[in-house]
Amino acid sequence: MNHPLLIRDLTFRYNHKDPEPVFSSVSLHLSEGEIFCLIGPNGTGKSTLIKCIAGLLSFESGEVLIEGNNLQSLTPSQSARIIGYVPQSHIPSFPFPVRDVVVMGRSPHLGPLSSPTLADMQVADDAMDTVGIAHLADRPCTDISGGEYQLVLIARALTQMPRILLLDEPTSHLDLGNQMKILRTIACLSEQGLTILMATHFPDHAFLLSGRVGVMMRQGLTRIGKAETVITEDTMKEAYDARVSIMTIPGNDGRKICVPLLS
After folding, report:
1. Where is the ABC transporter domain (predicted)?
2. In terms of Cα–Cα distance, which of 251, 79, 93 is closest to 157?
C-alpha cells in the first residue's frame, strides 16, 4: 500500500538534558487521501509531533519518510512542495490583502529574487475558490473573522500544491458554524486525494470525518484505529480524566457523538 507519510520510532525532547522526552517511539503511517486525527490532553506533544513532521523542529531519533524520501534529506523548499502546514489560528499583525497572504504559499516554487507570476496568482485564486473565500480576496486579513482567516491559512497551504496537509487544531477558538465549514473543507480535500493529519481537541470531529484516530498520551501515541473503536468512554476517562457518554444519534448515518458528563 502507498504511504505518503511514514513515521518510525520518532522521539523528541526540547533539550538533551531533559530527563524525559516529550514523546518517544511514535510510529504512524498515512495512506493517500486519508484523514488522521490526533487527539489527547494538552502537553502530550500533538503540536510538537506535527512540527517535527513539517520539518520545523528537529527530532532526537527515528525517521520521517515523505513519499519514500527521508525528511532530513530534503531541502526546506523540496519538503514545502509536498507538505503544507497550517498552524493554530493566530491574529494577523498586518493588514495584507487576503490574496497576498494566500499567494505567499507559492514561495517554495519561486527563485530567491522572483515575484509571483500570473500563473502563481491563478493558483492562489484557485485555492481560494476551493475553500470558499474568493469573495474575500481584496479584504485586509485584519478585517475578517477568525474562521475566515483560518480558511485563508488553509488556502495559503494549498497554494503550495502539497500532497500532504498538516493541520494543528484548525477549529480552535471557532464557533460551531465555522468549525463545520472547516471540517467540510477538510473532507472535500481528502476526497480530492490530499493526505491529512489533523490535531484536534474535539473527539466529535474525528467521528464526523470518519477517519483513523491516534491518542497522544505522556507515553506517546498509545492507541491507533478507527474513531468508532478508539474513542470510547474508558479511553476518554484515561486521556482527559473526564466522564463522557458515547452514543449513536438516529438519522445521522449511524455516526457516534461524544457527550461530556458533569457528574
Report:
1. 5-243
2. 79
Burial 109-139 (b: 16+ CB within 10 A, else e): beeeeeebeeebeebbbebbebbebeebbeb
CA 252 → CA 179, 205, 221, 233, distances in Å?
A: 18, 14, 30, 20
Q: By three-state DSSP, how is residue 158 classified? A: helix
CA 7 to chain centre: 16
Dihedral sign, Cα of residue 78, residue 79, residue 80, residue 81: positive
Helix (H, G, I), strand (E, B) or coil at 213: strand
Cα separation, 151 vs 139, in Å, equals: 14
Give backbone dihedrals phi and psi of 106, rounded to 5 degrees, phi first. -80, -5
pTM (whole model) above 0.85: yes
CATH topology of domain 5-232: Rossmann fold (3.40.50)
Q: Tell me the pLDDT of the chain averaged across its residues.
A: 90
- CA–CA distance, 108 with 233 (Å, rounded to integer): 44
What pLDDT band is residue 1 in, cutting at 50, 70 and 90?
A: low
Question: What end-to-end distance do the CA atoms of the chain give, in Å?
Answer: 45
Q: Tell me the domain boundaries of the chain.
A: 5-232
